[in-house]
Amino acid sequence: MAGHAPRTVLLVDDDAGILTFLQHLLTRNGWRVLTAGNGLEALAHHDRNPNSIDLLITDLQMPLMNGQDLALCLRAKQATLPVIFISGDPGELTLPSEAEFPNHLFLHKPFMAAEFLANLDKLMA
Known about the structure:
By secondary structure, the protein is an alpha/beta fold. It has helices at residues 16-28, 39-48, 67-77, 113-124, and strands spanning 8-12, 32-36, 55-59, 83-87, 104-108. It is globular and about 35 Å long.
């Protein structure tokens, strides 16, 4: 991304270890990272930074608001926002199809940094 302003990712997970790992990985790869521990914090970040978020990365299972509901809320405000859902166990949630919810992907935890970056590149291409 040399010569370009860094893109901004909103990273949401209730696991501090995942937040730290992904924040460092994304920062090293030229992203500006906003972190939130739950969906309500993420909505507040988005409201403070309207239309400046280029990507949402969210855990599916979180307290207060699950990742899918968060993505739907943010897509209502920013229709083309790309989304990466991450989860060790999606539980009762079923992921939407690409037709229902375009421009998203799902990564199962745990994942390797190289796998994450390859999927990120594919989504953002």
